[in-house]
Amino acid sequence: MPTEPARLALHSPVTRRAAVAAVTSAAAALLTAGCLGPPGNICTLIGADSGVTVSRRPADFPAGSRYRICADGTCREPSAPAAGDDTAFLQVRLPEEDGPREVTVRFAVIAPPDEPAGEESAGGEPAGGGRVVHAFSTRVALRAATPNGEKCGPTVWQAGVRVDPRKGLVGPG
Description:
By secondary structure, the protein is of the alpha+beta class. It folds into two domains: 4-36; 51-170, no CATH class. It is built from two helices and ten strands, in the order ααββββββββββ. The protein has helices at 4-11, 13-36, and strands at 51-56, 66-71, 74-76, 88-93, 102-110, 120-121, 132-141, 143-145, 156-164, 168-170. Strands 1, 4, 8, 9 and 10 form a five-stranded mixed beta sheet that branches. The chain has a five-stranded antiparallel beta sheet with strand order 6-3-2-5-7, with no helix packed on it. A hairpin with a 3-residue loop joins β9 (156-164) and β10. The longest helix is centred in the N-terminal third of the chain and has 24 residues, at 13-36. It starts with a helix and ends with a strand. Residues 6-10, 26-38 and 115-123 have low confidence and may be disordered.
């Protein structure tokens, strides 16, 4: 059982501030020591996928529409976005080892069908049927992306476009 003077010392504002400062300094030292490590690269663990991303505004197309995005014959019909989404991003993944090259991107807006969407296919007609109400196509260059820095993996190959109902597929700006 601590004596009365010891109990008072632990509860004084000056002692508490000193204890907090000591703990904060010790934590900062431990974190810094963990980052220094042995010589070499310190890498984060941010993941990424190679692919093409299309951004679009759901308000630009008929309510309940489905979307189909294709990059060099690999196609995807993602599920409908949540109600109220102002901008939505749709992606079709490509093999990680693709490298820098141009790919053909196709984007279609499909009128609301009777069957649900969300299937992937190798090209051709939309999964689940439906009438295509907009169809756009362009070529884009895949560019290297290194989310953890150039000396850390992964290196993925990505491109992005924006869909405009009047202009078609345009640069992301």
